[in-house]
Amino acid sequence: xxxxxxxxxxxxxxxxxxxxxxxxxxxxxxxxxxxxxxxxxxxxxxxxxxxxxxxxxxxxxxxxxxxxxxxxxxxxxxxxxxxxxxxxxxxxxxxxxxxxxxxxxxxxxxxxxxxxxxxxxxxxxxxxxxxxxxxxxxxxxxxxxxxxxxxxxxxxxxxxxxxxxxxxxxxxxxxxxxxxxxxx
Length: 184
Known about the structure:
Number of domains: 1
Number of helices: 6
CATH architecture: Alpha-Beta Complex
Number of strands: 9
Low-confidence stretches: none
Strand order of the largest sheet: 5-4-1-6-8-7-9
Structural class: alpha/beta
CATH superfamily: Spore Coat Polysaccharide Biosynthesis Protein SpsA, Chain A
Mean pLDDT: 93
Radius of gyration: 15 Å
CATH topology: Spore Coat Polysaccharide Biosynthesis Protein SpsA, Chain A
Helix content: 25-40%
Largest sheet: 7 strands, mixed
């Protein structure tokens, strides 16, 4: 089974603190466009977001990182997604702020097999990943470290492999309202 998780747990500090996944892109919450991509390849799709961030109003199930992982970055969201997935499944991850991602990226990751994440010409894209649920235990341990590792380093240490993509355009990240306006 494939289980999809749209990661929307960030602080959105460069977006004025507002939940950027809820920002409209082409008349619809950006997170929903990303969820649509995952829905084409996953049996179930959920949104990982902070409690009270208003994602519950969108009609998709919402999961939350454990309270003890609050403030520990995107790795906490990945762990929450893996924990919510059925035993033995592969979990497909997408950040809510990469609205140009397409199904082809995920099909390529799935063909690579095992636990994998994307690398674009701009660098590691660890939130664009297909991970086996078995990575839950080593990633949980990483969240216990005094200094939480970067998500790509934690994934590599847990046994995930990088898959290179030649085109950086589909990995465009919406960090600010100006970034969103440019995509609009």
